[in-house]
Design brief:
With about 160 residues, this protein is α/β, with parallel strands linked by helices. It is about 45% helix and about 20% strand. Strands 3-2-1-4-5 form a 5-stranded parallel sheet, with helices on both faces. Helix 4 links the parallel strand 4 and strand 5. Helix 1 crosses helix 2. The longest helix is centred in the middle third of the chain and has 19 residues. It is globular and about 45 Å long. The chain starts with a strand and ends with a helix. The structure holds adenosine-5'-diphosphate. Adenosine-5'-diphosphate binds next to helix 1, strand 4 and helix 5.
């Protein structure tokens, strides 16, 4: 069974993430979505809230594809998390050039830690490539309309935070 790990902060989950999850499902038998606790980033949503939001987004994808998705909070090293869940692939989304430098370093370091785990990059649909959780939060905080970037339950969750 091919298992993939898609790690991120998902603060909150966006249509960009959903796009990558859908594409990733075609590559693996089981997709584990690793929700990083990431205290350093000072997330807006608690870990429980982020996990619940990701689970809600995945339900229709599971129903549609019949595939297996597991949402898995983690605090340890990414490569250890991948080993814990039995993943042979780490899935990452690639947006602009800005993501490249960081991802390039991550692949190099992770490969040095465990050469058996391969990182695979995917690009979202053109309309979703520019979406970033950080900017979604900024727009929501300033009262802007984020409905093009996140699903209705996430729009509501953002309103509750900033309302
Ligand atoms: P962000 O960088 O928006 O805070 P995360 O840390 O949760 O998001 O990102 C998790 C993964 O999803 C990363 O690999 C990131 O590059 C990817 N990702 C996030 N948004 C998009 C998008 N709009 N298109 C493609 N990949 C994305």
């Amino acid at each position: 069974m091919r298992i993939g790990l898609y790690p991120g902060t998902f603060d909150p989950v966006t249509l960009g993430h959903v796009d990558i999850i859908q594409r990733g499902m075609a590559l693996v038998d089981r997709l584990v979505i690793g929700v990083a606790i990431n205290r350093d980033k000072g997330p807006l949503f608690s870990l429980e809230e982020r996990v619940a939001m990701v689970e809600a987004e995945c339900a229709p994808i599971i129903a549609k594809t019949g595939g297996e998705i597991i949402v898995h909070p983690f605090e340890n090293l990414l490569i250890d998390c991948a080993r814990d869940v039995g993943a042979s692939i780490i899935l990452r989304g690639l947006r602009a050039v800005a993501d490249f430098e960081y991802e390039f370093q991550m692949v190099g370091m992770n490969r040095a830690l465990d050469a058996s785990i391969e990182t695979v990059f995917m690009m979202a649909d053109a309309r979703r490539q520019a979406i970033a959780s950080k900017l979604v939060k900024e727009i929501a905080r300033l009262g802007g309309d984020v409905s093009k970037f996140v699903t209705p339950p996430v729009v509501e969750a953002l309103k509750r935070k900033y309302g």
